[in-house]
Amino acid sequence: MSVKLYFNPKCGTARNVLALLREAGIEPEIIEYLKTPPSRAELAGLAKAMSGGARELLRAKEPLAGELGLHEASDEAILAAIAEHPLLLNRPVVVTAKGAKACRPAELVKELI
C-alpha cells in the first residue's frame, strides 16, 4: 500500500500516526512539509480528496489563521495561505488509495489503511 504522510516531527499527533502506520506494517513516504512545502496544486489535490475540502487542511487554531482572516475565507484563499505559510497545514495529513485525511486524533488513520 502506498501511503504519504505530511509530517512535522515536533508534533505528537504526527508521531503517533507514524507509529500506528508502522504497527500496521506500513512504511509511508514521509513529507516534512515545513522543509519541503506542498505546492498550491498539490494542496488543491489534497483538498479535493478530503471530505472537508480546503478547510480540513487548515490548522484553524494556529494564531496566523486568525490574523489572516482565514476562519471565514474561501477555499482558494485558504489554499493560497497554506502554500505561502506551510505552518498553517493541519497535521498530520495521510494519503492512501482510500483518500486523504487530516488525522486528528491519530486513530483516524485507521480509516485509511
Describe the structure.
The chain is α+β, with helices and mostly antiparallel strands and 113 residues long. 37% of the residues lie in helices and 14% in strands. The protein has helices spanning 12-23, 40-49, 53-57, 63-67, 75-84, and strands spanning 4-7, 29-32, 93-96, 99-102. It has a four-stranded mixed β-sheet with strand order 2-1-3-4, with helices on both faces. The longest helix has 12 residues, at 12-23. The relative contact order is 0.23.
Are there runs of 5+ residues with pLDDT below 50, and where? none
**Secondary-structure element order, as H and E?**
EHEHHHHEE
How much of the sequence lies in strands comes to 5-15%
Largest sheet: 4 strands, mixed
Overall, the morphology is globular
- Supply the number of helical segments: 5
- Helical proportion, percent range: 25-40%
Average pLDDT: 94
CA-CA gap between termini: 8 Å
Spatial arrangement of strands, main beta sheet: 2-1-3-4
Number of strands: 4
Radius of gyration: 13 Å
